[in-house]
Design goal:
alpha/beta, Rossmann fold, 2 domains
């Protein structure tokens, strides 16, 4: 496991790294299917299967993360649904303690997320992320997800970090693969992004159960 204290810049994912992915899994895998089934007066299992197939068709692309794209595709007011369900947003265990420690070091810290800008603003407000982090970037600003090299080019241009002196922590293996391939020296995987689910086994990157397990 990387010693985060040896890096000048620490880049953090939001959902599944700082915030509990349990909310997002609830939103997309339970709440949205229920709302669709209700609105369409259709069988929940059939609606869910169709929705999962739609997700799979754009997985890894920016559309997969885009609230406006899914609002149009599903004819649901997802912004309103996000706001109405935002009371479920929670920090992962140990995340606040790590953020407090990180803030005290004076290191350059930024949050990089694939979340849509509206989702980012909702979660910033509910969780108070601005207490710990000054710089926030949504991949939608760059028109490319974190899985794409174009994102990392744009992020480096915006933030001015030295890839050789940078640590990036995320729960998505494809995203970590992209960061490492682009040249980020330190990549660290979170193995328990959803507090309601068991730990995952991660072999191709250094890993940690959560931010609270970092020294």
């Amino acid at each position: 496991m990387h010693d985060w204290r040896k890096f000048d810049t620490v880049l953090l994912d939001m959902d599944g790294t700082i915030l509990d992915l349990a909310y997002d899994n609830y939103f997309w895998l339970e709440l949205v299917p229920r709302c669709l089934a209700r609105d369409r007066k259709a069988n929940l299992a059939e609606v869910t299967a169709e929705l999962y197939a739609q997700f799979a068709r754009v997985q890894g692309r920016l559309e997969w993360y885009c609230l406006d794209y899914w609002t149009e595709e599903l004819s649901l007011d997802l912004r309103a649904l996000k706001s109405a369900s935002s009371h479920r947003v929670r920090y992962l265990p140990g995340a606040v303690g790590f953020l407090r420690t990180l803030q005290a070091t004076g290191k350059s810290v930024a949050l990089l997320t694939n979340a849509h800008g509206h989702t980012l603003e909702v979660k910033k407000g509910v969780a108070g992320l601005g207490r710990w982090i000054d710089t926030f970037i949504s991949s939608h600003e760059f028109g490319a997800p974190k899985e794409a090299a174009e994102f990392w080019v744009a992020a480096q241009r915006r933030l001015g970090f030295d890839p050789a002196r940078t640590l990036f922590i995320d729960d998505s293996l494809p995203v970590l693969d992209a960061a490492a391939a682009w040249g980020i020296a330190g990549v660290l995987a979170v193995t328990r992004p959803d507090s309601t689910q068991p730990h995952r086994v991660v072999e191709r990157h250094p890993s940690v159960p959560g931010l609270g397990h970092l020294p």
